[in-house]
Amino acid sequence: MAGNRKLGCLSIFLFVALCASLFVNFVLMVAAFQRLAGVREAEPIPRFREILLQRGARASLDKIAVITMRGLISSSLPGNVSDSMVDDMRAALQQARDDNRVKAVVLEIDSPGGEVTASDAIYSALVKTRARKPVVVYMDSLAASGGYYVSCGGKFLMANETTITGSIGVIIQTLNYEQLFNKVGLASVVFKSGKFKDMLNGARPITPEERDLVQNFIMKTYDKFLGIVANERHLQADLLRNTIADGRILSGKEAFAGSDAICQPVSGIRSRPEHRRQLPFPSLRSC
């Protein structure tokens, strides 16, 4: 009897071990198949740690997310939780967008601008956030060029009188060092597949065709920037093109003056009842 009991226990143990082995092998086989097929699990979206800046007057779980964007706008700059600062901004906006307790978003911008594509990516993420909850952009000391491009994604744009903004335009610049090469006895030797492949080569003069091509590219990109400003601020593109959208910088006071105002003063939002009703900010509702 004792021998039969031991044999029975051993049989059960072997059966369980066989089942476990089959399960492990199945999991490993599925993982190997996914690698061979190029299937990857979706990477989790990076999350930012929240810091309480100011406690509300009433006991409530609702909150206002304050997100900051400072410095150059570039996809080549590393982020804090992701590959680039652009991905950081998109992740932060998505975190605020998906959090049901976040009732509004404040984006603080202190940036001279940067890459067009990077600015457009952050602007698009801000527009997506604006579609779900109020977004207020506060332009700090500097929100020019790409910094203003991103700002256009907010429902309200706020600036101080001393804020530097504007610079609505696009620029590409290069150096011509042909005379320096001639002076020191250097020459550039280029092998290219097409006549425009070494465009903007500083070792030789730019050709009229190259100049027209670059200028055409600049103006197409500028028209996109101008169209966003005109659409978001409800202004005529021709009016902007012939006035403040010529690349000039503006003080905050100049930016919210006249019929072509591109933002609002901080005090202006507080003083307009129709704006106060749309904002879930107690501090901004009271004059």
Which helices and strands occur, and which strands form pairs?
Layout: H1 2-37, E1 63-70, H2 85-98, E2 102-111, H3 116-130, E3 135-144, H4 146-151, E4 156-159, E5 164-166, H5 178-184, H6 208-233, H7 237-241, E6 249-251, H8 252-255, E7 264-265, H9 266-271, H10 273-276, H11 282-285
Parallel strand pairs: 1-2, 2-3, 3-4, 3-5, 4-7
Antiparallel strand pairs: 5-6
Helix pairs in contact: 2-3
Q: Could you characterize what this model shows?
A:
The protein has 287 residues and is α/β, with parallel strands linked by helices. The chain contains 11 helices and 7 strands. The protein has helices at 2-37, 85-98, 116-130, 146-151, 178-184, 208-233, 237-241, 252-255, 266-271, 273-276, 282-285, and strands at 63-70, 102-111, 135-144, 156-159, 164-166, 249-251, 264-265. Strands 1, 2, 3, 4, 5, 6 and 7 form a 7-stranded mixed beta sheet that branches. Residues 268-276 and 282-287 have low confidence and may be disordered.
Number of strands: 7
Q: In percent, how helical is the residue content? A: 40-55%
Main sheet attributes: strand count, strand direction, barrel closure: 7 strands, mixed
Shape category: flat
Query: What is the beta-strand fraction?
Result: 5-15%
Quaternary state reads: single chain
Radius of gyration: 29 Å
Number of helices: 11
Give the termini distance in whole angstroms: 92 Å
Main structural class: alpha/beta
Order of helices and strands: HEHEHEHEEHHHEHEHHH
Low-pLDDT sequence parts:
268-276, 282-287
Please tell me the overall pLDDT: 84
